[in-house]
Structure formats: structure tokens, C-alpha cells
Amino acid sequence: MNLIHSVDDKCYIGQNYYFSMKKILFRKILLDCFLFFIISLISTSIIIFIFQAVNFLDIMIEDGRNYFVYFNYTLLSFPKIMSRILPFAMFFSFSYVLVKYEMNNELIVYWTHGVKKIDIINFFLKFSFLLVFFQLLFTSYIVPRTQEISRELVKNSSIDFVDSFIKPKKFNDNIKDLTIYTDDKDDQNNLKNIYLKKGSNKNFQVTFAKKGIIKIKKNISVLTLYDGRTINRSNDKITNFKFSESDFNLNNFNTNTITIIKTQETSTFALFNCINNFLKKKIIEQNNSITNSNCSIKNMYNIYKEIYKRLILPFYLPILIIIASMHILETKEKINFTKYRIYLFLSGIFVIIFSESMLKLINDNYLLNFQLIFFPVIIFISLYFYVFYKLKSYKF
Q1: Residue 382 has pLDDT above 80, yes or no
Q2: For residue 90, how many C-alpha atoms fall within 13 Å in the half-sphere facing its CB?
Q3: What local confidence, expressed as pLDDT, does residue 38 receive?
Q4: Model pTM?
Q5: Cβ atoms 347, 136 nearer than 8 A
Q6: What are phi and psi of 295, to 5 degrees?
Q7: Residue 204 in contact with residue 239, Cβ under 8 Å?
Q8: Contact 87, 352 (CB under 8 A)
Q9: What range does the domain containing 6 cover?
Q10: How far apart are CA 207 and CA 223, in angstroms?
Q11: 152 and 300 co-located in one domain
Q12: Same domain, 288 and 379
């Protein structure tokens, strides 16, 4: 009886050791892949963010926005950059770590402890579905919301650095419905020979002045003009008058920066609501708007594209995980191991390009667009069964 209990205890201890060791090994390989993935994702996103931040300087320099607007507008673009980089960063990170494990003979530890290759692949796939959830959260809510906030930030901000976009010997039309020209501008923002045109071609106001200077009066940007003339045209009547000094308030104008909410800045709920109204034939005219300014028949193509990018593209992540995991199917002792690695890398790049190129297949037909959902499902099932039957032919 004691002998039976002793054998049972040893079996129980052995099973506990196997499962605890398996858990440690899985945690180790996942931690290495995940840390490298986070480092790759953040570092690459920061590099792109810096280059993009330089381009966004136009918001402050050309449009006269202040540093606070520039900083927040630039920072709000970071989630969008991360969501675009995530698929490649994930595929590259997992591929690199698994190849490194193979080259350093670290995978042998897993095989000697009874870990099967299909177990590692299934383990990574479970993690990939977690990434799909976070990517869906980013693309369907966080990114559109941050883009909308950035647009509202520019729309509601005032023009603080008016003198920054007034350049000599150039027609400056950064301010909506206002064109400013000056022959010269010195370091004290003194302008010479100024031309201003306000309004449209039918109703306008043209002002000429020999001298002008930009002043800040009670937090308002004012262009004080000296020794000039103003010509007004209103309802086909022309009037003009001379002045020795006149103040021109620049804060009453908006810049030409686009402030209308784009499709990519519209919430996912609003886009689905628009599609629902479209299917119920509630959108009759092309310019008829129901839920938002982008909900119209002529914009349905862009709405379908946006839905695809937000809700379908993330489901290509498990496919990239399978391709990256396929590095463990072959060992470095194989003659064609290097070619095999290159083949897998190119396959992953092809999947990323393929997923993006599917946007060209989107059209105004709802049913045809719905079929695009099955592409990642078919590719995923095909790859998984290929891996499963390939592993079944070996003994592990």
C-alpha cells in the first residue's frame, strides 16, 4: 500500500513539475517576444513621430498657432502611428526572437522538457487574439477619437503668431478670406507698402498703406496701418477713403486649415449608423446628411474603406503570428534554413501588403464588401492546417 502511494505521489510530483516547467518556459519565450515587440513598436513610432512633428511645424509657423496647440496636435497623432506600425513590429519581433532562440540552441530546452511545437504555436495564437482586441480598441475608438480631438483643437484655437506667416514679397493667404502682401518686413515686424484684400470678388475691401506694424492690444492681434487708402465694394457700389492711421483686427478671421471632420475622424458608431441608414434607403440625395457631415451616398465608398481599416485589418495579426511561429518548424542544421527564413519574412511582408491592397476591392456594394471579412479567416485556417499536418508528419 505504501509502495502504491509512493508511486502515485511521484507521478503527481512529476506532473506538477512538468506543468510548472512548461509554464515557466512559455512565460520566458512570450516575455522575450513581447518586450522586443514593445521596444520595436515604441522606438519605430517615435522615429516616425519626430519626422511627422517637423512637418506639423507648419501649423504654428504658417497658420500662426501657439506652442500649446502645436504640441497637443502633434502628440495626438501618436496613437495613429502606433496602430499603423503594430502589425510589422509584431511580425518582426516574434520572427527575430524565435530565430535567435534557434541559433542559440535555446529551443532544445523546450523539446527536451516535452513541449511540442504545436503547443508553442497555439500559445502564441492565444496571445495574438489578445493583440487583436487591443488593435481593435485602437483603430475603432482611440485613433478616431484622438484625430477628432486634434481637429477640434485646431478649429477652436486662435491665431496667436500672426506675424509669423506674413512673409515679404509674397501673397500670404493663410487667413481665410484675407490676402496680405508687403514689400518688406524688419526684425521689429514693421511692414512697408502693404496690400490687404478681404472678402470675395463681388464684395470685397482692398486696403493700401505705406507702413504697418503688428501689435498686441488686450490679447488681440492688431495690424496698425499708417498713411493709406481703403476701397470697398458692396452691392456693386464702390466707396473709398483715406486714413492716416487705422487698426485692422486680425483675430476676427480663421485660417484656411481644414476644420471639417473627415471620415477617418468620425466615430465607428456613427459610421455604422450611416451604413444602416444607407441600407434602409434613408439616404436619398447625394448631399443628404443624417448622422454626420460625412454620411452621404457619394461618401459610402470612403466609409466602407474606413470600416475595413478599423475592424478587418486587425484580424490579419494571427496570420502574421502563425508565419512568424513557422520559424520553429525547421532547425538551423537544415541546408536551406537561411532561405527558409527569408521566405517566411517575405511571406509576412506579402500578407501585410495584401491586407492593405484589399482596400482597392472595396466598392459601394455592401454585400461584396462583406465578403472581404472571409479573406483573413480563409488564410488563417489554411495556414493553421498546413502547420498542423506538417507537424503531424514528424515525431516530437
Answers
A1: yes
A2: 27
A3: 95
A4: 0.74
A5: no
A6: -90, 95
A7: no
A8: yes
A9: 2-157+284-392
A10: 12
A11: yes
A12: yes
